[in-house]
Amino acid sequence: MTSARLLRYASFLAGFDYVVSFKKGTENQIADCLSRAQLPKNDKVVVPKGLQLEVLKDLHSTHRGIVKMKQLARRYQNLVKSCKDCLSIQNNPPKAPVHHWDPPSTNWWRIHLDYAGPFQGYYYLVLIDAKSRWAEIKAISEPPTSLNTIKLLNDIFSTHGYLFVMVSDNASIFTGDTISNYCLENGIRQKFIAP
C-alpha cells in the first residue's frame, strides 16, 4: 500500500514536464549551498524574516497536522540542542556568587539549626556550632512547634550557655512571635536563610 504522502508528492510532480539526467557532483555548480558548504565553527544558520513563512510552509508541506509539524520542527531544535558548537556559544546566565559565612571568633557565637524528619516516628532538632562544628541533636515524637523548640533550646543552652546569633530557615517555627520574643529576651540575634 502506498502512503498518502507519496501519492500527494506523485500528483504534485505530475504537474511538471521534466527530463531526468545524470550530472556529476563536480559539474553541478548550482547545488544546494547548505548541503555542500561546511559552516565555520561559530556561525549559525538564521532564517531571514522574509523567508520564515516559506520555511513554515515547507514544514507544513506534508499536511500531517499541527502536532506532526511541531514534531518535525522540534527534531531540528533537538539537533541544535545536542550540537557541541551551538552549546559552546550559548548564552548561559551568570552564576550567583556563593555567600560564605564569616568564621566566628569564639565557640558558641553562632549556631545553625533546622529540623529533620519525621524519621521512624521522631523529629530531630539539629543544631551545629559554626566555630567548633559541635552538633547537638534532640529528638521529639510530636510535630515541632515554637513552644517545644524553645524547650529543646533551653535544654541545650543550659549546658552550653546562650549564643549571640541563631541562623535558621524561614519556617514558621523559627519566624513566629513566640520564638522571636524568646530570642529578644535572651539577647539572641536571629538570621534567616532561604529554605
UniProtKB/TrEMBL annotation:
Pfam families assigned: rve
InterPro entries in the record: Integrase_cat-core (IPR001584), Retrovirus_Pol_polyprotein (IPR050951), RNaseH-like_sf (IPR012337), RNaseH_sf (IPR036397)
Gene3D superfamilies: 1.10.340.70, Ribonuclease H-like superfamily/Ribonuclease H
Integrase catalytic domain sequence ranges: 100-195
PANTHER family linked to this entry: PROTEIN CBG26694, PROTEIN NYNRIN-LIKE
UniProt protein name: Integrase catalytic domain-containing protein
Organism: Cordylochernes scorpioides
Lineage, uppermost ranks: Eukaryota, Metazoa, Ecdysozoa, Arthropoda, Chelicerata
